Request: fold
Amino acid sequence: MEYNLYIFAFSSFLMLGFSVHMLFTTIGNTYLNKLLAAMMGMRGLQMLYYIAINTGQTFFVSIIINSLGSFLFMYGAFLYLYIRGFIRDESRLQKKDLLHLIPFLIALIDSIPYYFLDADTRANFISDVIAHRAFFVSDSFGIFPYYLISIFRYVLLVTYFILSWRLVIKSGIIKFRKTNPIVTNWILFFLLITTLSNLSMVVNFIINISAGASTSNLFLSNYRVFIQSTILLGFFGYLFYNPKILYGFVFVSKEFAATLKPMDLDSNESAYSDELIESQESKKPPRATRKQALTFSEEEIVRIKEKMISLIETEKPFLNPDFSVGDLAAKMGLPSHHCSYILNEYVGKNFREWVNEYRVEFFIAHYPSLIANQTIVAIASKSGFKNKNTFYSAFEKVTGQTPSQYFDS
Reply:
């Protein structure tokens, strides 16, 4: 039993440390960082609460139960908002999201009578909590019965987890896992580990309800702590095995934030290849190509330019992420260097910039109707982008804003 408490103590301080780090970091999406900080902070305090109960620390139980109880009603809402914000790349709370505060306000109002109890009554209540080693106790001093508030909290928690999993499944993030594996692995890993952890508490609560507060025993407490400790060991074991999954989401470094948004190595290599192609195309055409291209009359060049624009707007070949200047040339019946020359000299863009502009326009046109059920990465992939880095770079180049800034404005 003691080793479980050691694991709990180590994990709780680790989570509280992460919480403080994420709360004050200015790198990355600060809105999502604060939601993650709130969840880790609540879970860290909850684990300290378990430790204080199991070791009979009356003073700490009294402090934590007063400060934590009402805020636990927000855990599920924070989880759902974090998952939704992560998938849709949100950067701020929406006005309608304030409705998620209602359960917290109800719990806060319900806890007010506790503060007007005399010292002896409060001490007896804390002793009852420690004796049963569970959240479910027989006494009730609030507006609503204690067991009713507890049932409401766990039903609310399960509801939010169902909504979160439904959002992940409908978003298509699993389908496009290979496009951005680190981002996908992080959100799936985080949701899975929080689901297992909270599910064990829900099961423990159901056991307490069925057994009754008067028959709560040490076995139920050991069962809860053992399950939680096993999940935590699995959590840290997985992180040691695959530490990249946290890099950029919990561990945030300036170097990482400056180079990624965030992406995996495969995607970076792909983005680098696109930048290399763009750089090479920007240097075209060479002297020989110029001489060949100049053999066209002005009227012929205008006709070819209009035909190229008509082709890409009607057939939309840019939706194929592998669409190249060679493919365009084959459709036009021209040499590749002729197409590159006309784009550079008469459209004012190299091939990569030209194609990505159409992809960004396609993304903007379809974003409002698709974002409810798909991730930004999935929509960008449908628009012809190979990876998230290329998409963000092209979007900011065309609009001067990030997607969240563009659609917020």
User: Anything to note?
Assistant: The chain is about 70% helix and 0% strand. Residues 213-219, 253-294 have pLDDT under 50 and may be disordered.
